Amino acid sequence: MLCNKFEIIHSKIDYKEILNYINKSKCLIDIVQNGQCGLSWRALEAMFYRKKLITNFKDIKEYDFYKKDNIFIIGEDDLNNIKNFVNTGYVDIPENIIKKYTIDGWIENFINFK
């Protein structure tokens, strides 16, 4: 079903298909449950695939990859600016920050944890 440039999917899809949708998208939406205290996979996908993110996870501001130009926080940012947010370009994040969130970066952090 297509609705104002949004595609609503009512059935489960495999991860390859999700990646296909991510590649075609300008922006990803991440709605976290009450009480969630960590990043979702969607936030990492947005960073890895250079996509804007709309989220209700307010603590995302505390992460080193947070850029107001790339992440719109529902309940904090002005909803009147959401169209402009989506239509402006993505601001690149330094590779050394992105690497920290890859599996290699996690293993390196775990090994070097002090």
Low-confidence stretches: none
Q: How many strands, what sense, and barrel or not for the largest sheet?
A: 3 strands, parallel
Alpha-carbon Rg, integer: 15 Å
Mean pLDDT: 89
Gap between N and C termini:
51 Å
Tell me, briefly, the overall form.
globular
Following the backbone from N to C, one meets helices and strands in this order, namely EEHEHEEHHH
Number of strands: 5
**What topology, given as strand order, has the largest sheet?**
3-4-5
Helix content: 25-40%
What is the quaternary state of this protein?
Answer: single chain
Protein model, in words:
With 114 residues, the chain is of the alpha/beta class. The protein has helices at 15-24, 41-48, 82-87, 95-100, 103-111, and strands at 2-3, 6-7, 27-30, 52-55, 71-73. The protein has a 3-stranded parallel β-sheet with strand order 3-4-5. The protein has a two-stranded antiparallel sheet with strand order 1-2. Strand 1 (2-3) and strand 2 form a beta hairpin. The radius of gyration is 15 Å and the shape is globular.
